[in-house]
Design brief:
Blueprint (H helix, E strand, L loop, with lengths): L4 E4 L10 H9 L2 E4 L3 E5 L2 H6 L9 E4 L2 H13 L9 E4 L2 H6 L10 E4 L8 H6 L4 E7 L5 H7 L4 E12 L12 E4 L2 H10 L9 E5 L1 H9 L4 E5 L7 H13 L2
Parallel strand pairs: 1-2, 1-9, 4-5, 4-7, 5-6, 7-8, 9-10, 10-11
Antiparallel strand pairs: 3-8
Amino acid sequence: MKVKTILVSQPEPKMENSPYLRLIEKEKVKVDFRPFIHVEGVDAKSVRQQKIDLNDYTAIILTSRNSVDHFFRIAEEMRFKVPDTMKYFCQSEAVAYYLQKYVVYRKRKIYVGKRNFTDLVHLFKKYKDEKFLLPSSDTLKTSVPDTLNGLSVEWTRGIFYKTVISDLSDLRDVYYDVLVFFSPSGIESLLKNFPDFEQNNTRIAAFGNSTVKAATNAGLRIDIKAPTPETPSMTMALQKYITSVNRR
């Protein structure tokens, strides 16, 4: 069956040259965006109950833009003036760039990984005497604490925000040819919102091994997978699939 409509379970990209725009123009398909999950911050009281005092830390580990936003939100709620001496260990350049929303970049001690959390290991070893705080959500990849626990560093995890399933009840009678997922939480949201979901002719696109596993465990048929050596991005995987089925 041909693909005419796609629902991506994420917010719409804000960049003007989004690869989804090229997909829409080239294949003449309709692509909608709708976050299946969203983030809600916890309050300062909840952070204090975790026995976290921001004065105790000399370095912050930032794995995402959400962790940046919620660290500075909690600091403000606690009336904690972040010292100029604070060190920031950012998982990627994108996170480090986003940090500029809160600090004057050139005047701060900012250390940046390439993409994966393990890229920071050599930096943690170099600055092993720091006291690290990891602001995170209630869901955290096990590779993060496993990596930190394997090093001789003092670190604390603080749950500063939570991943919450979005209300999708308005989509109950709306059908798409392809549903695109990027996390196990997205799959969970689909099944919580629509416990009687029947896949039938709906194609499922899944990004990442953990998403593929969650979809498979839920009994869903996966038609499109990414990343692969041939299609390292989701839009490339969608492009390949659509080209195959729409031009038969």
